Amino acid sequence: MSFFQSEQVQENLNDIFNTYQRISALTANVSSMPLEDRLNHIESCKELIDKQKTFYFRLSLASKTDPEALDMKERIAALTQAFGFKDLDECMDQMISTLEQAAEKELDKD
């Protein structure tokens, strides 16, 4: 069975997608949210990135035996390098750092 056909992988992808949709729906209103809600939104974004990192780790492991997973990993690597990152981990770590800086700024504003 292909990595992407696994029931657990499908559940993980659905969870990531649903989390993304929930976060996206709130993003337009972030500036008008109370401080606690803005900070919760930042935490939700960090949780989404964590889910994506975990999924990517699993994809990387599967890429050793599954050609589809290898193809996806290579495409992700090409995209992240096109954006100037060494790899997806570096990109996601930078996202986390940016979110943490945003949280600090929110706390400083209030």
Concise summary:
This protein is mainly alpha-helical and 110 residues long. The chain is built from four helices and no strands.
Could you explain how this protein is built, in words?
With 110 residues, the protein is mostly helical. It has one domain. The protein is 79% helix and 0% strand. It contains four helices and no strands. The radius of gyration is 16 Å and the shape is elongated. The N and C termini lie far apart (52 Å). The model has no long low-confidence stretch (mean pLDDT 94).
Distinctive features:
79% helix, 110 residues, mainly alpha
Describe the SSE topology.
Blueprint (H helix, E strand, L loop, with lengths): L6 H21 L7 H28 L4 H16 L5 H22 L1
The largest β sheet comes out as: none
**Tertiary shape:** elongated
CA-CA gap between termini = 52 Å
Supply the helix-strand structural class: mainly alpha
In terms of per-residue confidence, which ranges show pLDDT below 50 for 5 or more consecutive residues? none
Helix content: over 70%
Q: Give the tally of β-strands.
A: 0
Please give the count of helices: 4
Radius of gyration: 16 Å
Could you state the order of secondary-structure elements as H and E?
A: HHHH
The proportion of strand residues reads under 5%
Mean pLDDT: 94
Total individual domains = 1
